[in-house]
Amino acid sequence: MTAPLRVLLVDDQRLVRSGFAMILSAEDDIEVVGEAANGQEAVAAAVEHRPDVILLVVLMPVLDGIAATREVVLADAGKVIILTTFDRDDYLFAALDAGASGFLLKNADPDHLVSAIRAVAEGHALLSPEVTRRVIEQMTTGRAAATSPGLGSAGCPVGSAEARERDKRLARLTDREREVLGLLAQGLSNAEIAGTLFLGEATVKTHVSSCLAKLHLRDRVQAVVFAYEAGVIRPAS
Known about the structure:
By secondary structure, the chain is of the alpha/beta class. The protein is built from 11 helices and 5 strands, in the order βαβαβαβαβααααααα. The protein folds into 2 domains: about 5-120, Rossmann fold (3-Layer(aba) Sandwich); about 130-230, Rossmann fold, CATH 3.40.50.
């Protein structure tokens, strides 16, 4: 029998934690291993319990969710899903920059919450196509000013060591894997990529995994960043 997914709940409101615990307790493959009421407690509990997934809110006393996420990721103490009541880009990008594997609004339905935990536990980044496109837009806006003649799309000199390293990693991909990377980076789901390339969804999943492994990327979020910086996709994409 497969061991249940171990989940840590972090929210400064006890009632919210109880609600999440009640939802998750109904699932045979999920076990709540601990709770925390602030970011500092969250880091300590994560290091102690080593959960598979941590549900963690942004706004908390003592240590906020973004800072707590950064410490948890550095300690390799679990994968983080950021929960918030606010659909705000500053939270989104700060959470992704801190190393969060997912971003979920608190008003998501229970089924979505459960599927999110399972997806992140399996190593998938939890980003909807809409959110992925917002990441691209933010990168385009934030880095456009840094791009000038003689500079690459990421603001790095063409031919620089950083650019050469990206090119070297990109060359490891097959033509099909590069196609998949480009579509993934535009925010398409595996099912949408499969439909676009007339492939089976399982085949696409294999290609995505191969892309991440060859490029030494943690998840789909990093793949979006890499594809933009390497010129696989452009703002007009």
